[in-house]
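agent> fetching stored inputs for the arginine docking request
agent> found them:
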Amino acid sequence: MENTDFEQFIGSFSFDQRLCVADITGSAAHVKMLVKQKILTSSDGKKIISGLNSILKDISKGWKLPKEEDIHYAVEKELIRRIGAVGGKMHTARSRNDQVATDLRIYLRQETNAILELIRRFQKALLEKAQKNTDVIMPSFTHLQPAQPVLASHYLLAYAFMFQRDRERFIDCKKRINVSPLGSAALAGTSFKIDRRYSAKLLGFENICENSLDGVSDRDFAAEFLFCCSTAAVHLTRFCEEIILWLNPEFAYIKIGDKFTSGSSIMPQKRNPDCAEVIRGKAGRIFGDLFALLTIVKSLPLAYNRDLQEDKPPVFDAVDNIKLCLEVAREMTESLEFIKENALKSARKGFVEATEIADYLARKNVPFRTAHAVVKQIVSYALKNSKTLDELTLEEYKKFSKEIEKDIYKRIDVKNIIAEKTSYGGTSLKSSLKQIEILESLLK
Ligand code: ARG
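agent> prediction call returned; pasting tokens
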């Protein structure tokens, strides 16, 4: 191991360059604060700011900073190369410890906003499909066994509300991201008369960290962000699992765009739901990112320890992957089409009307438990005689309960079953339209 590049091993330049813009933004605000507090002269301040701007301009054109230990040194060294030793004044009353914590918060705040918008767009796709499919009836499941018929919209709306919670979670997390540690310096604060609130305000932070030891060593906001990503990823896997099932020829409720599936190199009939599967798989690495960060921070004594440098790869990995997954999920949803006849046919299978017959008897004063037992017998009779519940004759029904009359057939018609689920949040068209209205206003 004689040739080990220890500088590279200790450094983070190979993975922290995406903090570059945040770093320059943070430095510019720090310098403006130093000038306001008369710690730097305004002419030095101007030189530094224009140097930083020229670096920013070159970077936006694709120019790359020369390699250094980390992005913070790289920017500072480049600044000194461009404007001379005065560039070294930028680091007055600051340390890389508060600098990197500030950069990460600026970066995550921006990415949180980007993710919020991607979730919103995905929710919109779900909502639009829900609006389009208010006439599609399909079975719902518990234990993946047929349960009761519902509108396809009801399913899509369920996911739209689930992702609403994800947005709320990210918005809440942003409150804790958006706090400035800048001016905590190495860990103890500084004897320079700085104005932390001023630099925080310039950077759009809502608040400042109260304690400098905590300020430089806190990564809770990043762990929380990764938890938000993980929960959204869980939700994506649930949705993708439905897509995978519904595409299976045994279900065949839906079609999705060709580009979201692939064929098999050997089995010509195959259309595999690869995109949905990749999203399902990506969740694993996003959870891994959360656990990596929690483990990095675990047992660290205050304040900054170089272990914390390893916070960035999992954060960046989760950002990239959750964004990708949200975009793919949205596009896949936009391409989704229900095969109405198949969904309806399936909704009529599996004795999904059974609960309705029990409710019917309960309305006729039969105790629900008794009704439940009666219907269980009816179902096993139907099963034995290879009949569906709507194929049983009234005489057959009467054998099990005298209370059953001709109107039972109307009761167990799937369309009626759904139309009557008018309780708040239920699957009737009326309550689905109400849910659509609520989501429309949430997604404005
Ligand atoms: N590259 C470091 C990081 O990403 C910057 C902070 C270094 N601070 C220190 N005291 N060595 O965390």
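agent> quick read of the result: The beta strands are 137-142, 145-151, 179-180, 207-208, 254-255, 337-338.
agent> awaiting further instructions
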